[in-house]
Write a structure and sequence with these properties.
Helices cover 51% and strands 16% of the residues. A hairpin with a 3-residue loop joins strand 2 and strand 3. The two termini are 32 Å apart.
């Protein structure tokens, strides 16, 4: 059963058509192989106006819903979760600026973002602060009507691309309690004193994930997002949107993994018959599709609740948990069905598998999601 209305189905089909006909799996594959940021596709999506989707109409956007956005992320991730990351990461910070930015910041950053001339990245984690993000050690001290940043950040996706502004979580008050001393600074990635290094990670090869060293990197007071000391609220405010978006993207990628495996199973002949005719393969594919459909329903539920303003942290964590583990599982099973062919980049399955291994870590680990879910459970 399809729970989408006619307008939503048209939007979903439009995204799918663009991915298949105007971007294509070969382009996504090549960006992954070359560890090349998808600039051409990013520009194409920007020209289509899709970066405006969530921005309110009064600020020049389309005023779309989180459900609309989830459908877009599901479609963009069709040939690889990493490809969709380039668009999702930018949007998360863009919405932080919508909610917490000054009118000057909104005018400075949002139109350029919607035109595709400016990208955003988010820098939260550090070597000693991953799931425990409030243990941030990177310091920002007041200096010359601005802030001087010193420290090290880690796992910052897309920060090495051109024309990027990083929303960086920093500690501005070392005397305050753990969460209270944090702030968010908008830091252009060409700021003197920043050393941004792309990491040779197994997944996220195109968008790239980075390590950042800040040595007296200075930004003005105008780059402080919201109030000093309120950074924890700002940086966690986007987590609901982030987890719905990535969950939808996991579903999109997982569905393609099942589709590719199913096609191969019909084409591959062994012992004088297609391997799909072997019950063990058919049952494996049945389980894979069932898991993807269940994940999609959880994602759509969370997206619908969030779009209507209903508190849904538990439902969001359920979607993130199920969708990420499903991508990991079906991509591994897809590797098994494709056999030796799965090891080649041209099969695409090994890319899905690598992204699946990352999916249960990034955006909040499966363990963190289970903790959130269990805290919301009542006897």
């Amino acid at each position: 059963m399809d729970f989408l209305n006619e307008e939503q189905m048209l939007w979903r089909d439009t995204v799918a058509r663009v991915m298949e006909q105007e971007i294509g799996r070969e382009y996504v594959r090549q960006c992954d192989i070359e560890r090349a940021y998808p600039y051409d596709a990013y520009d194409k999506v920007a020209k289509l106006g899709w970066l405006r989707l969530l921005i309110p109409e009064e600020q020049g956007g389309d005023g779309g819903t989180i459900f609309d956005y989830a459908l877009m992320c599901e479609g963009l991730a069709r040939y690889g979760f990493d490809f969709a990351t380039a668009f999702m990461v930018s949007t998360f910070t863009g919405m932080n600026i919508v909610k917490f930015g000054t009118p000057e910041q909104q005018q400075r950053y949002l139109p350029a973002f919607m035109r595709g001339e400016l990208r955003f990245s988010i820098s939260i984690s550090e070597p000693q602060a991953g799931s425990d993000a409030a243990s941030t050690r990177t310091r920002a001290e007041p200096r010359d009507n601005g802030w001087a940043i010193r420290g090290q950040k880690l796992w910052c996706s897309g920060a090495a691309a051109r024309d990027v502004v990083i929303a960086m979580l920093v500690r501005t008050d070392k005397e305050a309690k753990k969460h209270a001393g944090l702030s968010v600074l908008l830091v252009p990635n060409d700021t003197p004193g920043l050393d941004i290094r792309r990491l040779p990670t197994m997944a996220r090869r195109a968008t790239g994930t980075t390590e950042i060293f800040a040595d007296d990197a200075w930004v003005s007071d105008a780059n402080l997002l919201g109030e000093a000391g309120k950074g924890w609220r700002i940086i966690t405010d986007h987590l609901e949107l982030e987890r719905i978006a990535v969950s939808a993207a996991y579903v999109g990628n997982a569905q393609q993994a099942v589709t590719d495996a199913l096609r191969y199973a019909h084409e591959r002949i062994q012992f004088d018959q297609a391997i799909y005719d072997f019950q063990v393969i058919r049952h494996m594919l049945a389980d894979m599709q069932t898991a993807v459909d269940a994940s999609r329903l959880l994602v759509y539920r969370a997206a619908d609740l969030a779009s209507r303003g209903v508190p849904c942290s538990r439902e969001v964590s359920m979607a993130k948990l199920m969708a990420s583990e499903t991508l990991q599982t079906v991509s591994r099973q897809g590797m098994q069905i494709l056999g030796g062919h799965s090891m080649l980049p041209e099969s695409d399955m090994e890319r899905y598998f690598r992204e699946g291994m990352q999916s249960t870590i990034g955006g909040g680990t499966s363990q963190i999601q289970r903790t959130i879910i269990s805290k919301a459970m009542r006897v």
